[in-house]
Structures are given as C-alpha cells and as structure tokens.
Amino acid sequence: MSARFLVLCSGQGGQHPAMFDLVREHDGAAGLIAQFGEARETARLFDNRVAQPVLVLSAVTLWEALRKDLPQPDLCAGYSIGELAAYGVAGSIGPAACVELARERARLMDACVTAPQGMFAVSGLEVAIVDAMAKEHGCAVAIVNDVDKCVVGGPVAGLDALERTVAARCQRLPVNVASHTPLMAGAVEPLRAALAGLGMPLCPVVGGIDAARIVRADAAVDHLARQAAEPILWAECMDACAEAGAEVAVELGPGAALSNMLRTRHPHIECRSSADFRTLRGIVSWATRALG
Fold first, then answer.
1. Exposed e or buried b for every residue in 123-142, given b needs 16+ CB within 10 A?
2. Is the pLDDT of residue 214 over 60?
3. Between 20 and 30 A from 283 (CA), which of 4, 129, 145, 249?
C-alpha cells in the first residue's frame, strides 16, 4: 500500500530569478510560463502584483511537469497565496486560470492600500502577547506558525512602532501589503465574485483560516475569499495534514520554508521541497521511492 501523499504550495518570500529553471524545458510548463509576463519581471519579484501570480505560476507549472509521473495527491495545502495554487494542483481550476486569479487577487489587495503597509515575522514571544501589542499600534497577527512564531501585518508606521518594542525578535519581510489582516477587508467580496468559477477539488485542500479539509467548491470560494483579510493558522494546518495521515510531502515553489516547518513539527512525515532538486527526474525518483 502506498504512503499518503501531501502537496504543499509555497508562499511569498523565497522567489528568485532562477525559480523556473527546473521546468523551462518541459513543453507544457514552458508554454504556461510564456503566457505570463510576470515571469520575466525578475527585478520586481517582490512587488505584490508580480509576486502573487509568479508564485502561483511556479507551483502550477511544477505540478504540470510532474503530475504524469506522480500519483494524485491525497491532500493539498498552501501558505497564503499558495492556498490558491493548492486548488490548481487539486484540479479545481486550470493552471492558466489559476494564475489569472492570482493576478486579480493581487490587484484587489493592492487597491486596499491607502498608506504604506508591510509585514514582519516575530519569534520567541507567545502569539497572544504579540497580538495584544500589535493591536495597540493598528496592526494584526496575520499568520500563526507556532505558539511563539507568527507574522504581523499593518501600516508601516504601526509596524515601526511595534518593532521598537520587539526589535530583537522580529524580521521585516519583503511584502508590501498587509495580507490576512482587516486592512484587506475591501478585497473579500470582489474576490469572492472572481472565484465563482472554482470547481470541486479532486482531493481535499486544507483551508488556511481554520485548517478545515475543503472538499466542496462553495467552501473553497468562501475560504479563499475570506483568507485575504483573516489570519492564516498555519500551525493548525500542519497538524491537520498529520492528522489526515500524510506520510510523504513535496513542496512546490521557490524556497523550502514549508517543508522545513513541517519536518520540524512532524518529523515522521518525509518531506522535501522542489528547491532541493536539480532536475524534475530527481523529484520523481525521490517521491516514487518515498511513496513506495
């Protein structure tokens, strides 16, 4: 009996100019890359309007290149914008349409920015303490990665003030919108309308805002719309993947943040990132052996 297979889709932070090198020679993936100009804007990879579609494009092109040689996942999950990509991997939407939705999501979120915004990671402080301090400065916890690790988003002025309080414990992130905070509330309903064509996933997708296993199209639309302005409970998402019986996981996208976090939290899950490999064949060989 083969191991239960989990696919993770990366969030922002690890993008780089060579992020498509693994798939450029694959016909289907190369054709997708050619459709989207964002893949060529290497000088602006951290601008929100470029970052969101590029990260989704990275995950869906990798899956396009791998899916004929790997089994259908038993479960998918994605971090922040990666959750949209996870629905692409799960078959709710075609790869090109998934990237178009990422473009629209970025546009709607950018439209909510009326003053400079940003995000930073905080470690070594309980999330409840960080949340209370963040609210004092008009900021909010956006992502919870552990009991003492989180990401805060808000106006730059508020983040500056908060940083002076927790300076030794925070790291600025290359993100210029306060994703997953109330500052993005104006994007939720327009995004819900844009997501209306999403279909039923072929496997469950873990919802970032509550770690629920999403199996219906209407639930997928609701969760993806709401997560633009609600915090991501990533620690709970990792636990939900473990509870669902995930045994082997591959992270699709640049960097290895998700695979590293999952490996640390649930060491029994054999987990690698596509960024660990030099070739697609290497990913397939490792996954085939691990899945048994």
1. eebebeebbebbeebbbbbb
2. yes
3. 145
| Whether pLDDT at 168 is above 80 | no
In this prediction the pTM is 0.96
pLDDT at 213 over 90: yes
Q: DSSP characters for 32-72? A: HHHH-GGGG-GGGTTSHHHHHHHHHHHHHHHHHHHTTTSPP
- Predicted confidence at residue 167, as pLDDT, reads 73
Could you tell me the CA-to-CA distances from 122 to 158, 179, 181, 268 in Å, in that order? 15, 16, 16, 27
Q: What is the gyration radius of the CA atoms in the chain, in angstroms?
A: 18
pLDDT tens for 184-200 read: 999 999 999 999 999 99
Cβ neighbours around 21 below 10 Å, total? 11
Taking residues 119-141, report their average pLDDT: 95
Q: Beta strand 140-146 with 5-9: parallel, antiparallel or unpaired?
A: unpaired
Question: What per-residue confidence (pLDDT) applies to 25?
Answer: 87
Terminal CA-CA length for the chain? 7
Which residue's structure tokens are 């459709």? Answer: 35
Helix (H, G, I), strand (E, B) or coil at 7: strand
| Strand partners of residue 150 | 122, 144
d(CA 93, CA 187) in angstroms, rounded, equals: 21
112 phi, psi to nearest 5 deg: -85, -5
Q: Which residue segments constitute the domains of the chain, with CATH numbers given?
A: 5-111+183-291 (3.40.366.10), 117-175 (3.30.70.250)
CA separation (Å) from 31 to 35, 133, 241? Answer: 7, 47, 32
